[in-house]
């Protein structure tokens, strides 16, 4: 998967991963500012399966802030 262009791939050690592991990786990337690089070890540490279940490459976050803030969002 990494050769095909993915930044993170499941089960580099061929173990059964927890179904929430990819969700936790996506959450970490989604809530990291676009100017920051996601810390791979921190992202993998927050998964249930850990290093045997998820592997990855450096990637930038996707979170962007806009200005002015919408009057409809509190």
Low-confidence stretches: none
Structural class: alpha+beta
Strand order of the largest sheet: 1-2
Summarize the helix and strand pattern as letters: EHHE
- Total strand segments: 2
User: Helical proportion?
Assistant: 10-25%
What is the domain total for the residues?
Answer: 1
Main sheet: strands, sense, barrel: 2 strands, antiparallel
Shape: elongated
Mean pLDDT across the residues is 84
Distance between the termini: 40 Å
Task: Classify the beta-strand content into a percent band.
Answer: 5-15%
Count of individual helical segments: 2
Write up this protein.
One of its GO terms (biological process) is proteolysis. Pfam families: Peptidase_U57 (PF05582). The protein has one domain (1-74). 22% of the residues lie in helices and 8% in strands. It contains 2 helices and 2 strands, in the order βααβ. It has a two-stranded antiparallel sheet. The radius of gyration is 15 Å and the shape is elongated.
Characteristic key phrases:
alpha+beta; Sporulation-specific protease YabG; 74 residues
Short description:
By secondary structure, the protein is of the alpha+beta class. Helices cover 22% and strands 8% of the residues. It has a two-stranded antiparallel ribbon.
Topology of helices and strands:
Blueprint: E1 8-10, H1 21-30, H2 40-45, E2 54-56
Antiparallel strand pairs: 1-2
